[in-house]
Amino acid sequence: MTSPVTAGDAASAERDSKAGTVANRISTEQARAGVRSELAQNTLGLWGVLMQGIATIAPAFAIVSTFVFTVNLAGLAAPVAYLLAGAMLLPQAVSVNQLAKAFPSAGGWYTWIARSLHPRAGFFAGWYMTLWLPFAPALVFSYLASTVLMPAVLTQYGITIPVWLWAVAGIGLIAWTAYRGIKVSERVLIITGLTEMAIMVALAISGLISPGPGGFNLAPFNPYNVPNSGTLFLAVVFSIFAYSGWEAVAPLAEESKDPRRNVPLGLLGSVIAMILFLAFTVWGYLIGIGTDAVGSIPTAEQFPVFTLATRLWGSFWIFAPLAMLNSALAATAACFNGGTRTWYGMARSGSLPSALAKVDPKRKTPDNAIHLMLGLQLVGGLLCGLFGSAAVFPTWALTLTLGLIVMYILANLGVIKYYLTEARSEFNVLTHLVFPVLSTMAMVYVGYKSVWPLPDPPARYAIFFFVAYTALGGAILAYLKSRGREDWLDKAGQAMEQTERGEV
User: Fold this and answer.
1) 229 and 363 in contact (C-beta within 8 Å)?
2) What is the pLDDT of residues 71-84, one digit of tens each?
3) Reported pTM
């Protein structure tokens, strides 16, 4: 039995309602007010921003981690799988560009989604990026060293360079550049990124000039060569992982010149560049290996691209693994940039410890965030040492892919909500509704195909890790709420002060 509502209760309810309205208004005003960045503003040009995305994607490493598996599923039509995967990501890139233009911030996806959808949704975006970028360097180096670099050097020169030495040397070099400042990192990204792409493209051109069994042809792009078994879509799902990394452009907004222009161009440009790169190089490798010999690729004892490089370049085959090493260095540098800037943005708003927002006044680098980044490399290295990188890497890859899919969907919902409400005057039915809806539908389907039917172990464990990691993020939010520490909700959507005021 309910008690009658008293006059005092009604007055209290009215006060609470008014307080909530005022709080919402203050939150919106604070989000629009913006924040002043302590990072090195106006430092990165378009090339630096673009190479952040391309380097994080790691073109050469993308070939290493997906080529054999994609050919196994798609056969001769492997380039088609990469093209379709890129085509699925393009609407997502166009959609999220709308948020990049509106809210440039070091928080990147965290800020975009917090501002356009809800702060707690933005927290999960940053939470999933924390699973992605900070752990990538150690896992990428360990996987590349154990599966490609160490065996290649041992086979050709009889020298064993342990995995940990490759990882420590590579990560140590990139950590030094991270502490030196974003300008040094930009130079490293441009040099290493362009070098790896040049080598891999040169090998593909060599394959087209000197084809294997089957000769020069366009068969890899012929739809009739798509397998009848239905495995092409599984190849597309796996090929999407080859593109992961373009998201890392976002956290460089506060260090970019003209972030409303350069960050959207970097996001979209890195996806387009990788579509062209992957389709062309995979075609060249298949022609060089021989379209009549594609069936031997999945069972080859040595990485087929290295075998191709040995046949075409002789003793200069070493440039192929050097491209892979360059790829790991560039990806590591880009991950350090993206991961530490995302933490900086989250810590500045209060959803992570404020110590992570501390910036060195001279070098303009978030040193505490870089310290934490280095610490997580030790964690990643220990996991690879205990369980083997061949088991840890695919498990982590699928776990982060599921997180990125959720993040993409949240961003799409943010685009729709923001441009149907606050920015209604700018609403465009194609970019603010059709593309986000199409991208969301594609991502939901990709997510479903990624987990059902259940993949074989160890990748199967990724599903459980993803659920546990998401639950941990929810527990952190619940803790903050229970302790009354929710000031961060008002700050999570703040973008750059000068950009919000139109001064850039």
Assistant:
1) no
2) 988 999 999 999 99
3) 0.83
